[in-house]
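Cast an eye over my tokenised protein here and flag anything odd:

===
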Amino acid sequence: MGGVELRHLEYFLAVADTGSFTRAAKTLHVVQSGVSATVRALERELGSALFIRSPQEVTLTAAGRAFLPRARETLDAAHAAKDAVHRTQGALHGTVTVGTQTSIDLVDLPGLLAALRTRHPGVTVRLRAAMAGSAGLAEQLRDGRLDVAFLSLPGPSPADLTTRLLASAPMVVYVADSHPLAGAGRVPLARLAEFPFIDSPPGFGNRTVVDRAFAAAGVEREVSVEVADVGTAVDFIRAGLGIGFLGDFLVPDRTGLDTVGVADHELRWQLTVATAATRRPSAATEAFLDLLAERHPAPLRGALTQVRDPV
């Protein structure tokens, strides 16, 4: 590749992933002028602009989009070569970028990371919270921005992801104890659809489970409030603004609430850990997954309110 260096690729990917030279510089812990100069040098070497620059955003050109997967593959290969050397020295080094979900308290992530640091002090873990739900995390896995992600995608695992089930739990309807459905026991989806819902935005796994159930029943419902942090949904439900499907593990305090069962459908939420099937995990990523498997060797099913382990 002539004068293209790994540093050029690293800086290019940082800008592509963050959409900003400023954010890329913060991620790389360098000054912004250094990032800009390095990317310009790469563009001169390649003879093509890689980014469209505007005051509002930085986006990839057609050439940049074509270059992106090759740059990531090259950098991944370089990291794999380093891994091979470090293995012969008995020490692991590297960074694992992990996509997480807010409010899910099933995997003791702080404890897991503390144990990983003790076992492999040369491994650094970067956490990225889900801003677009499990669907967004899955896309970031596919394009290489994440190494590992905790997903709650319903149904069979996508063919391009390698997943392992960590937990599975039924979803029940929570209502305010003053709601007309309080004390109703079990009701069909059509009865639930008479009331507004509190739910996550589209793209979140729990939203997809519920949307699919209503679609299968041929019933339409209204989502009046969308909250990205599903743990806060119960506050809106308690205030009487709507009803909502939640797992019991999300509701440690049931004061002012009642639950309603679904008579004609079983809705289950599941949590998996996933990697991209098209890329071999780095040694650091494998160390993270191995430790997770030690701490969670089998899926947790049923009532999960006793488990205090955040995704």
Confidence is low (pLDDT under 50) at residues 303-311. The chain is about 40% helix and 25% strand. Residues 62-88 form the longest helix (27 residues).
